[in-house]
Amino acid sequence: MAREFTSVGVVGLGTMGAGIVEVFARNGVDVVAVEIAEDALERGRATLTRSTDRAVARGKLAPADRDALLGRVNFAVGLAALDSVDLVIEAVPERLDLKQRLFAELDRICRPEAVLATNTSSLSVTDIAVATGRPQQVVGVHFFNPAPVMKLVEVVRTVVTAPEVVADVEALCARLGKVGVTIGDRAGFIANHLLFGYLNQAVGMVEAGYATREDIDAAMKLGGGLPMGPLTLLDLIGLDTAYEILDTMYRRGGRDRRHAPAPLLRQMVTAGLLGRKSGRGFYTYERPGSPVVVPDERTPVVAESALLDGARTVDTVGVVGGGTTAGGIVEALARAGYRVVSVARGEEDARVRETVTTSLAEEVLRGRLDEAGRDATLGRITWSAALDHLADVDLVVEAVAGDPDAKKALFADLDEVCKPGVVLATTTATRPVIDLAMATRRPADVVGVHVFDPVPATSLVEIVRTIRTSPDAVATARAVAARLGKTAVVCGDRAGFIVDALLFPYLNDAVRMLEAGYSTTDDIDHAMTLGCAYPVGPFALLDRVGLDVALAVQRTIYRELRDPGFAPAPLLEHLVTAGYLGRGSGRGFRDHTSR
Ligand SMILES: NC(=O)c1ccc[n+]([C@@H]2O[C@H](COP(=O)([O-])OP(=O)(O)OC[C@H]3O[C@@H](n4cnc5c(N)ncnc54)[C@H](O)[C@@H]3O)[C@@H](O)[C@H]2O)c1
Hints:
This protein has 595 residues and is α/β, with parallel strands linked by helices.
């Protein structure tokens, strides 16, 4: 029988601690909530009251239950109040010296049988445990932000943690309605190890002026399907906490440069820009602690319409390519009212035509398009097998599969065929747009438009400007994206643009973690869905995207940046070599044949 913890102490009532108090009190456990000083205690109390009031206002908690919940919490300044609890969870700032001192103190004050737990995100639980005389009763209990909402708890056992203590804590997690995933003591555990490289890389993009904060966040929400963008998430986590986590992961985790905190983070922390909690971080908030973003000097001042200044008139668009993406682009453009010339060679011509007609037929069946609309859409499309038919178009979108040299040759041909002033756009995801631009005599007119499949249903377009792209070519791409009802983000010409550059290294890291034997595919997937609210875990996503595609993107990123941290995981290479490519081939990280 697992031991039941009936009274629990929580130390530190900041971003995490106040939420952890709420989790316990909601589940009928008495809590002693401890802070270092009166003002911090009042802040913690106010956070708890606000959060429970919000739950009542939303109808998720009855007023009487709120009162009972608050009645279970005893607030106190100083650790002495913890002398009779069964379990203490600590959520003080992420600094080893501070936590070690705290645990030595807790060891003196708490009953000998009490379990001492840390909510650390990245520090060694073992280092903390040995500061006490009871290291076998010290464990990591890592909640996720916001603690009352996120289902995951990482339970971290050290080499000396007693198995029954781990079992008791696992049972407690279940009682709290959480999913406990038990793992060893490694920097960042599962979720933060996979999350923070990505967050740090996003900060690097802002720092380099590669894309704006708004565009990076929009790209990851719309293109990556994430609940919030990386910069919004960093503001929620707290930049001081994020800095400490990265710094520790860098030092403990093999000095992977991707975890070396971006210099901008340090500067922001020094300047007191800590994120939501201080009222300002990457964004500015209504007041400290508020989630409401208000405009500041970095908010784009140009009206949406001004971004389209200089856009060239586009009536007819040529689309080159015979695959699914080309078909999706043809359909989306024609439905938005553009006249479209679709150019595909040989059998591909029939295939792209089939893709478009089938998709439109499905739209009619689903009631999203009437038959007249379908006929008008098809009436706007000219099907062709010859590039010469693009002589009069205003914009060309290239979406051909195949090797880089073929694309270059195609751009040289387009340069011959197209009239002056045409914007030439490539959907390439794996080679620099500038290479294609320089295959023409009009590099200023060449732009990247990275779309996401299925094109008619997805809402993001990444517009890639090379060092030679003219502002009006960018404005033209923006105008077309707007008419298609898509959100456009603009970025520089680097491998993976925004979404792939941030997503694939994270997937690759998950493969490395699996390869290292640290955790399982299921637990890693759970960590990201239940701890970070990702719509799917990394292995489910890899199987869906295709391991061969992931490997190709990761290789491109690695070749460009040459940072060993981006080198494709050997396991990914082996699976691809073995023909385990994901859902499409029946097997990837999981076997899909019986599902
Ligand atoms: N912020 C997150 O998203 C997040 C998520 C999971 C885990 N964590 C971890 O939780 C811990 C706390 O992080 P946070 O973001 O909540 O920090 P925070 O800065 O928001 O809060 C820390 C609180 O601890 C209090 N404190 C400091 N010294 C104390 C002491 N000696 N005794 C009692 N209270 C003391 C401070 O007054 C403050 O209220 C860290 O270990 C962090 O890695 C954070």
